[in-house]
Fold each of these.
Amino acid sequence: MRLLGDPQVSTLQKPNGPAPLDGPVPFLSKLHEWVATTDHKKLGMMYVTCGIVYLIIAGLEASMMRWQLAWPGQTILSPEEFNRLFTMHGTTMVFFVGMPVLFGTANFLIPLMIGARDLAFPRLNAFGFWLFLFGSFLLYFSYFGGQGLYGMGSAPDVGWFAYAPLTERTFSRGHSTDYWILGIFVASIGSTLTAINLIATMLGMRCKGMTLMKMPLLAWMMLVDCFLVVVALPPLAAAQIMLIFDRLLGAHFFDAQAGGSALLWQNMFWFFGHPEVYILILPGFAFVSEIIPVFSRKVIFGYPLMVAASVAIGFISLGVWAHHMFAVGLSPMLNAIFMGSTMLVGVPTGIKMFNWSATMIGGKIRFDTPMLFSTGFLCQFLLAGLTGIWLATVPFDWAVSDSYFVVGHFHYVLFGGLLFAIFAAIFYWFPKATGRMLNETLGKWQFWILIVGFNLTFGPMHVSGMLGMPRRIYTYEADRGWELWNLLSSIGVVVQIVGFALFALNLLHSSFKGRRAGDDPWDAWTLEWSTTSPPPAYNFAEEPVVYSRRPLWDIKHPEDPDWKYE
Amino acid sequence: MVDLGSLIWHASMSMLTTAAPVCEPAGTIQPSMFNPAGAPAATILGITWLLFVITGAIAIVVLSLIAYAAIRCRRKDGDDLEPAQVYGSNPIELAWTVIPLLIVFLLFMISARGIFDLERTTPPEGSLEVSVTGHRWWWEFDYGDLGIVTAGELHVPIDDGKPADLFLTLHSADVAHSFWVPQLGGKMDVIPDRINHLWLQANAPATYVGQCAEYCGTQHAKMLIRVVVEPRADFEAWVANQQKDAVAADAAVKEGHDLFLRTSCINCHTVRGTVANGSFAPDLTHIMSRDTIGSGAAPNNPKTLRQWVFDPQNIKPGCDMPSMKLSRHEVDLVCAYLETLK
């Protein structure tokens, strides 16, 4: 729908820069400003910063596990320590890296991209952030408090999907599992509230002229994502409440020995857990859907189909959870149905792959760091998606479920896919958030080192899984044919550490010394680039009016505006 | 629909199973899925190669598109004109919606066939039926009518020229486990409030290894499985021996025998023919007939046996058996007795 009236191009007025400050701001008032803020941009940056800190912590946890597994029969870590590490690694990466990056970027970008001044409920937004942060503290406090009164425990060691009845008091003494439950429960309340907040913002606060079908693709995918959060997180919260009833109040929901059901937990967990995978990867899709067109200098290919595919992924992903349970002995018919639904989700995902590729073809691509990471995302996520089709195939899943093949597969999704997209997003929007560019040379080095390190770590895992290596084992026998593949994986970690160190260096250096970015360093087309870098608290001097999906393209190319074609 | 599925199924199976790589020499015990030893594992491998070919082709197509764009569609220096803006194309987008749908349909039909073939709830004719109980962290095998209960190692008879079928009924005594011997078939979870079944098959005598695949706590890594497939005569001899009660302790090991029965060993372990009848830990009536101790944690030889009895936590830290605080001399006495339990 086009708005009536002439001219069809809005001249977006730039806000004045931030008011000059009188002398240095005292540390305490600065701290107060950040702690008490309800500004979506500050909260967004705090979310992402916390995500990066937890990324480093969880990455170090993984490195210690790879050190232990580099050779067979090592005793660097005790079995208990190893089991705690993989539990904390998985839980942290999903709930305290993936989720804050999702909500951080959505927080920062959504109001700017839809021409709003903030989220619909700014104080609720701040509340959500602090729930997330203190939830994560609760989880990590288990390292000190998990022993409780029993002299058992420390951090939880039940795995990130915490299968019952291993989590019952009989098998998990002390309070470690209670910390796991409460930490995630608290954080998930924050996540649900923030998702509702974002949905309200996107549905109710778009600027003049921005119909739903003129929203940037990032906003569309975040919208689908937030709906998934609202549908999928409450079942997890419910399951966790039931579990803590079991543990502290003597209920028997999952206690098989007292007539409870171990499978009930699996169903409830994966009803959350599988949509969660899409909750994590959809932001990745969202980032590259914005970045690839800008660096290819072409409009996204097939916007309506991209929207449809995102919505389809949202719906289908709610009906595939039992593919995590192909080996629990469901009936052949149920297995076949869930195999079908899981394979089906490959179709909309495939459509996205093709549309991204078609956007690049015929473009004039600039391979700046964000585009490099996006291209890396495309290639690696393609492989992840294809091994996903393998795993959807029930007989193959019987062979490799719970093996290192699965570990390799989902790290291609979440590391090769999501994390590469996150790096693309950080390099792309860092100038908008801070007003300074990240260093391109360091960025390109980081990209190539991570490409090598990542594939060297997680490629061989597919092989060791098919050679019969189960996941979550703290050591293995020397005669099983797994030595070479494990050693390669561990060497890959060393390479990765170099890449991550470069990134940390780049972030620290560029935050203070980086080249000034200007308002629109990438010559981009969405609304956030029309305001200053960093944007003022009120975002826009006046409410923008848009006539197409690429308002800045219309301004830059008045002779050939988008609204003529959409 | 089923006819189409079965047609594609048989065509692809006959093509792909013969195209599988040459097996490793018999006798090696690497648990690779590329070295199937029976029909279920071979079926799975056939589907794997089919998946490899189809998804490999898709990968080549998409990676070529991306590579083409990355190489041929770069911006040239000084070229500041924007390229032609292409907003989409209905026929092209329809094509890459419909073609993947067809591929998914094809894969679904083939694999659904595989599910119904492999997932059995009744034993195939002539199969050995064993009831398996997963414990933290060892496997108990109950041969039912044969009256044998053993741990960690599963013996299966095979006749010349015929594959040996094995039909397992799976129970758990505590948490969720998963029974997995990759060369003999897929895996099946072992869940406390459920009874599951698993059909495995071996077509050659050998020792096949596997292990628990579902995280079950501290010593999940050392919950190993050995399936000994042996000629029927050897199996019958093994059965005859296992059915006997433990030999009476002769004078030489009397002291160790008494010490064993006096210590709390017997709260958890059974030695048939004595007062030891605990059911919490592996049956020791014929412990010396096994290749390993601690559910595969160590080979069964005099040295490791002594280390194990002295302090199992050194070999399998976190396992439920405590050190009994025996002196070196007492350990020797007990082990001398255990070594008569052949």
Amino acid sequence: MSNKTTLIDRRDADHGSLEIDAEAVNSKAARELYKKRTPIYPKISGGPFRTLKWGAMIVLLAIYYLTPLIRWDRGAGAPDQAVLVDFEGRRFYFFFIELWPQEVYFITGLLIMASVGIFLSSALFGRVWCGYACPQTVWTDLYIHVERWIEGDRNARIRLDKAPMSVDKARKKVTKHVLWILIAALTGGAWVFYFGDAPTLMRNIFTGQASAPVYLFIGILTFTTYALAGTMREQVCTYLCPWPRIQAAMTDRHALSVTYKVARGEPRAAHKKDASWEGRGDCIDCRQCVAVCPQGIDIRDGDQLECINCALCIDACDAVMEKVGRPKGLIAYDSYENVDRAKSGEKPVYRFARPRTILYAVVLVAVSAVMVYALLNRTMLSLDAMRDRSPPYVRLSDGSIRNGYMVRVINKEQRERTLELRVDGLPDAKITAMALPATTDGGLVVTARADNVTSMRIYVVSKAATERSNAIRFTLTEPTTGKTSERAAIFMAGDPR
Amino acid sequence: MTTPKNIGPEHHAVDEFSGTRTTGHEWDGIRELDTPLPRWWLYIFYACIAVAVVYWVLMPAWPMLNSYTPGTLGFSDRRNVAAEIQTLQAARKPSFERLNTATYDQIVADPQLAEFARAAGESTFGDNCRTCHGAGGAGAPGYPNLADDVWIWGGTLTDIEHTLRVGVRSTHADTRLSVMPAYGRDQLLSAREIGDVAEYVLTLSAARDRAKPDAAAAARGAAVFQQQCVACHGATGAGDRAFGAPSLTDDVWLYGGSREEVRKQIELGRGGVMPTWEARFDPAMIRALSVYVYGLGGGEPTPVAAPAAAPAPAAATTP
């Protein structure tokens, strides 16, 4: 249960700088049950992958924080927020798309696309989602940068934690946690904007007029952000997230992932300047790959569940290789297959088109096509007709039969529509309602409210209906556009059996 | 048996294989590991205990002999419900007031008010009227169907409201009242005469195709009908709502339209009782009920002018 990170003064032969030996605290060898978390002090690295992570972080955080602020004009009476989950109005707005609760299958389709997309990316490039795009990664990265900004880089942070409490240490710690909580609160604050009009909500939050659930959710997200990105970090990936386990089923020997090239690196040993490279591997055992790792592992141990493929060790190793004058890419995106091939001296192969990736791609394209088709052809006008269950039918004084229906007209357009409702299927069926005007040909004029469901009680009267149960059909027509919607229904003229 | 001296967790044996302390119990050589609880679990457990203690102080919690500990927040579900009901009633008050003052024409013309009345009427109907009249006013033998266009006492909004207020054969002083004599039980007619009248009534009604009445018996029954029945049911059997006399010309029957049922009704002269609702509901609720019943499908338009000339549509139920 001791802190496994040890301070070893070691004069690096080449650079003469004080280095702190980096130990992979989460490596398999260091694993034990009921172990208290050993803190990890990732060192900053520089290089193309660090730059890529900077870019991904900026873009993703910008999307998260700015999306609710985008306005989108939908006309009067409709919200003008581009992306809005409107629980009260039971609508989901996404730019030009407006979904009703009964269209939740679009969300299902989106989730299928997201998961198949992740499958595909994993099969091609390993855990790119984990390494660059997962919110846990992005926010943890952000928190580590704040930590570094306040407390300094790896060595300074280790020394600070070892040092006895002092005013300076307390100031740094308090500043760091205050900044973390501030970021967490902003995260929670942006979250609620997706569920209400952002400018109004912002004003209400600061004037104390927002509803209790708003503050509650800001509080919950503030807590989870602070806890997950600030204090739990890599433990979330290792212990909480199911993805590292699923991952194993999604990759194969040809999937690229961050890999240490054993054949080239081993046997590893420290290297003195101008010494020969004959009979030894390129790895100089400088442990820079361990020092920069936010997950506390040693990539040279091979593929591990803890590894999120952030590729920061690639940058670290490349920098060292450059310094010692060896080719870059000792740690690089490569496949198991190639690691094994290199051992036996074969040439590397890169096979991106494999049955697995082709299947994922085909499923992804198919689901996307279905989604786009469904979106383009979604009905903007429909009707429901629910027949009265009691009484099932009514015999009138002139001998005719009357059935009552609750007709619901669903109008998804943002304008009020004047429609005509007719019934057919019985030769003499007459359609009536308490307070709806009639058309010249025996239909009813129905006014469907904009973006709403309009319910009305409709009666159908017939003398010719002889069967116990007769099939009829309601037709809704918009005379101005010719658009129609139909709904089959039953006309009862005898006691239900 | 002597008490072992070395008791207490610090003396419990450590399992060699796992390195974990045991609980100190031993069953035939089998010992139980005293594996520590996960820290997160333990902390949440402690937090729950702390929350429980805070809850006892703030909220009603412990039962006492005659009451309970009320808690410092003064929380009471009963009071909350009462407050919610009061809020609801306050919110509905203006609508009920409008129901009271508006004319029926105004109510029907105002979709919001009409829907309010219909909804209020529906829930009250469900609690009070449905027992006899059935869900949706479907009716049952002896209990009129309220969804058809056949009315014994009239189907305009004001007629329905009046029936609701005073009831039928009720305790109300101005109750709607019609009494059909029990021709058989009180021996006003012989069994043969009753049979003949029943055949004649079936001849009058729209059920004649179905029932195929005996022409000779019907002819004899016609004479009895002219003596006994025309005063209320009219010469053609069209009935008269002024007396609550149902029409005998249609095929809608309160006590059933079979030959036996018609004969039985002439014998017994049955008549149901509908209570007066004036004392149970305020006028606004009675009007809401009227609107609901009217909207079940059979409501009749209010005669516009010249009530004398208003045609009585083929309406009214049978015996």
